[in-house]
Amino acid sequence: MSSLLARAMGKNTAAVDSAMEELLAPAPDLPESVRKAMRYSLFAGGKRLRPTLVLEAAACCGLPARKALKTAAALEMIHTYSLIHDDLPAMDDDDLRRGKPTNHKVFGEALAILAGDGLLTKAFEAAALNAAEIRLNGKATAELIRVVAYGAGAEGMVGGQVADLEAEGLGKNLSSACAAKTLESVHRRKTGALIVASLEAGALLAGAGARWREALRSYGECVGLAFQIADDVLDVVGDKKKMGKRGSDRDNGKLTYAALYGVDGARAKARALVETAHARLKPFGARAAVLHELADYIIERDK
Questions:
Q1: Angle at the Cα of 265 (from 259 to 271), degrees rounded to 5?
Q2: Most exposed residue of 158, 237, 277, 303, measured as fewest CB within 10 angstroms of its CB?
Q3: What pLDDT, in 10s, does the model give residues 28-41?
Q4: Percent of the chain at pLDDT above 70?
């Protein structure tokens, strides 16, 4: 990670964590048990990638990052809820996340489900509060909520998770003519949709026009898919201790880029996507320096 990106992500992480602490402060009607379960996963570590995308997109479009913090927190809450539910026995049945016991292992399945539900709904409250604080107009506020809901919902991340479940076992049948198309469709929704929503949310808060929104959307589509390809490669060659997980997609017969194209072929696809992502940032000039660095980091990381 470059020094520029390290400084930016460190600053953004500290600011977003502070905003999330405020949003999840003790409250009379908030049961302490579910608050603890929500905080356990929310503050268990992680790269804070999606919040950084919100803040940097807003900054690229002229809005100071500090004015987008609650929406940045909202995207991290949605991401965290998805991880809690992903780890459940009915889904991936994982007992380790980021090197720590998964939420349901600590709090039980029922409270883990409710903690995820709580984070998802708190996210929309946070985004709405953000819009009110900066006096975003009604039309832009509605579009902000729509973009985030679409990225997280049945046509975005949730739909991608469904498609991923339905694709289990295809990894053992790589001769299928539709394997590559299925794989890209899964990951553009499961991973990419929330990344795109993060960038569009930042742009909307800043009042950006259609040209800038489309540039950031296209950038997000490229880095979202590159991120998942890099994950697939790490699942084969990465250090499981650094990654804080056990097992592998290959063991589970999942369809992955590494399985379909080989490690070298998958890496080449990720590099090509990152080059396209760089080109999409041209309208922002030097303001997009962190987003450029982030695109490179996505395929160079080791966890």
A1: 125
A2: 237
A3: 999 999 999 999 99
A4: 92
Q: Give the residue ranges of DSSP H helices in the chain.
A: 3-23, 32-42, 49-60, 69-86, 103-107, 109-133, 138-152, 157-166, 179-190, 192-205, 210-237, 240-243, 257-280, 289-300
CA distance 303 to 227: 11
Return the CATH class of domain 3-300.
mainly alpha
At residue 6, does pLDDT exceed 60? yes
Helix (H, G, I), strand (E, B) or coil at 101: strand
Q: Which pLDDT tens digit goes with each residue over 210-235?
A: 999 999 999 999 999 999 999 999 98
State how far the alpha carbon of 172 is from the alpha carbons of 1, 93, 266, in Å. Answer: 35, 21, 18
- The widest CA-to-CA distance across the chain, in whole angstroms, is 57
CA-wise closest residue to 53 among 70, 78, 72:
72
Measured CA to CA, the distance from residue 152 to residue 191 in angstroms comes to 10
Nearest to 299 by CA among 276, 275, 270: 270
pLDDT recorded at residue 253: 57
First vs last C-alpha separation in the chain: 12
109's CB contacts (< 8 A; 6+ apart) are 88, 89
For residue 303, what pLDDT is reported?
A: 72
Domain ranges of the chain: 3-300
Bridge partners (DSSP) listed for residue 97:
100
Three-state secondary structure call for residue 87:
coil
The C-alpha atoms of residue 180 and residue 186 are separated, in whole angstroms, by 10
